[in-house]
């Protein structure tokens, strides 16, 4: 009889239950190769710890219906935190993706690291007060990303960005671990959209997809062959800073000219339209409201000025996304961000630009939208804590059985 390490057996069964639950103990024995007595013992441990629940009788078994177990997804929870400059958003979330509570802490414009650290700690403290009898698995923190709204064009951003992230790794992380006695993991924020979308969104179960943000900036979160991609320094996916216009003179805030963001981000789109209005261009738009909703109305009314600039922004973004598709060969492109509010004209032009410039061999992909993704990004940090708790990355072969058609 083959001998197995008990921890190995526990995590195999945890991940089988997570992937295939509700599932019977007999099916767990068949899929794992463990003795039925071992499966029963570990299932009882998980039930006693509140990590699993009895889930009724099996529905698909031939012959006698058997009792099944499932993960207690509403009793396993984690905290996820995303940070941008002097602001942090934190959520207490269950394994099933339910957000129990959300806290936003906002520091003063000149808020220093010490003050922000304490704000975040108090925010976490309030969230933990709601844990009750749930099983808390840890705190996930996304490194702060560069927000285009916080920088002037041409300003040096790299030193500030790295210093900010050093603060997360070297000060905030250890302080939270010491204060709350919980595992704390620091994640590259570029992976958070992909993590939450794969766990709970339109890319659930997908191993190859990209999430593209269309808002203040143009960014990409990449999931490739079952792995989120952060890059050597945690800044992979900066699609907005790929150069698409070699003749451009205007500098992006990153210091280069011709970046996608200088023509395709919403602030730059609004600025271009405002400049055209100032020059006396004919339009139904007023001088005041250049919100996505106002532009959408003008687009739907056939406003030629608005259509010209929105078409240009869509085609620039589409060119960059097509380049990413040609490089990564994803099966799904998930679009999110407030530029989706520009509506059908923008999305149609964007889709046309992507499809017209992708390699024929790479065209077997789906373009979909996830309007709520931006607001759920802290949930991505919590989702990674669930992955760590289950050791899912080490037992990825369990989840590959889903694609091979195994059923409980």
Note the topology.
Elements: H1 6-20, E1 23-24, H2 25-32, H3 36-48, E2 52-57, E3 67-71, E4 76-84, E5 87-94, E6 99-106, H4 113-128, E7 135-142, H5 158-180, E8 184-187, H6 192-200, E9 209-214, E10 218-224, E11 227-229, H7 261-264, H8 266-278, H9 292-300, H10 304-328, E12 332-336, H11 344-356, E13 366-369, H12 377-390, H13 396-403
Parallel strand pairs: 4-7, 7-8, 9-12, 12-13
Antiparallel strand pairs: 1-3, 2-3, 4-5, 5-6, 9-10, 10-11
CATH topology of the largest domain: Nucleotidyltransferase, domain 5
Element pattern in H and E: HEHHEEEEEHEHEHEEEHHHHEHEHH
Q: What average pLDDT do the residues reach?
A: 88
Any idea what the CATH architecture of the largest domain is?
A: 2-Layer Sandwich
**How would you sum up the major sheet?**
5 strands, mixed
Kindly state the number of beta strands: 13
Amino- and carboxy-terminal Cα gap? 24 Å
Trace the largest sheet across and list its strands. Answer: 6-5-4-7-8
State the CATH superfamily name of the largest domain: ATPase, nucleotide binding domain
Which range best describes the helical content: under 10%, 10-25%, 25-40%, 40-55%, 55-70% or over 70%? 40-55%
Number of structural domains: 3
Q: So what's the overall shape?
A: globular
